[in-house]
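2024-03-11 09:14:02 DEBUG pipeline.ingest accepted 1 chain
2024-03-11 09:14:02 DEBUG pipeline.ingest length=404
2024-03-11 09:14:03 DEBUG pipeline.predict start
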Amino acid sequence: MEPLPIVPVPKQHRPASPLKPHGTAHLHGPPWIGTAHHRHHYDRIWIILVIIMAIYGSIFFGFRGILTVILTTTATLLAYNFINLLFQFFRHKKLHTSTSYALWNGALAGLATPVLRDWTVPLLIGLLLGPTLYLVGRSSRIRIHPVALTLIIIWLIPAAIHHAEPVSMRNTLAQPVSAILTPNHIIIGNVTNVPSPTPNTQPWLQTADSYDAITRYNIQQKLITEQREILQYPLLIRNMLVTGDLPPLAELLFGAVPGPIGATSPILIIALGLYLIYKKHASWRTAMAALVAALSTYIILPFTIDNTHTLVITQLSNMQPAAAITFLAYFFLASPFLMLTLIFAPAVDPMSRQGRVVFGLLLGIFTSLCLFYLATPEATFIALIAAGVFSRLLDCLNHSRFTA
């Protein structure tokens, strides 16, 4: 009697999960990313994002803006790969590297900074970001955004050198260029070729000149540093609009103002944030919770005017309703709040839905505190670091379908 043939039993397919991915679909990035988003797909989405931001930033900052991004990205890639070579030389073992990951993080760091007069600063940012990517990058254990941490360190370097308060050393190292290209010199112009250091308050479309660029008020810096004076004097916000110290809202929305190379336009940042939400790389719950928390926290913050204790909402009530709404709209649209919430936060938020809501609330609260009491745009990254400390703990609020 012939033996029965042995029929191989097919192995049961076990789907990959963020905790135990298949070898062909390594999952790196925010821990809540689903199994459909492997490492290269995740990086590809972010590379598309930074390219769009760079193209848009070139409209107002020209080749100097693009060169800043290229220098930061190149320095990041060099430092990132150099660390791997050192590790391989001394430990005879290669680190897990991802050039695409270092690529978009380096570009994002350059896009989050303004055009700088000193070319060594972008190089310094990249050289510091490269090693930081190994320390906190692609990690679900330490939820700290490497770009945010790097920019905080760069901000604190002058204060550490001069033994001074960080707020008093604002812009000492970077020396940003407070200018944008005129409409007839967009993309191809030199943003440092300005007629005078005096800010031009004309509408942007009416500023055609033989020079490539015009000096403008840095609306982000101006509102953050002068917010208490605006709250103290109810008519000041109206006077700033009339005199041109504040640009028309349309110019602010489309980004015709000095600021971070890739993030001067709230419309662009909102569109990119919605794109990340659509691709399930970000959560709308985090964004909405952060917005509600930031506004609610800001209006109840206490401060002192002429030895008298008051609240922000008390001072806003002394303004006309239109002026109060205008101030809040300008303040949050011009601040780094949108970039922090929609672009940076998705890399460090929790897995659970309830956790994302709590994370967004913490991020909004911390952002308002940093903007009001530290009064510098760089301080907002501290809010992201502080909220990220709780991110891993918030995973336990409920079970994600990705880890079930």
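2024-03-11 09:14:41 DEBUG pipeline.report Confidence is low (pLDDT under 50) at residues 12-29, 32-37.
2024-03-11 09:14:41 DEBUG pipeline.predict end
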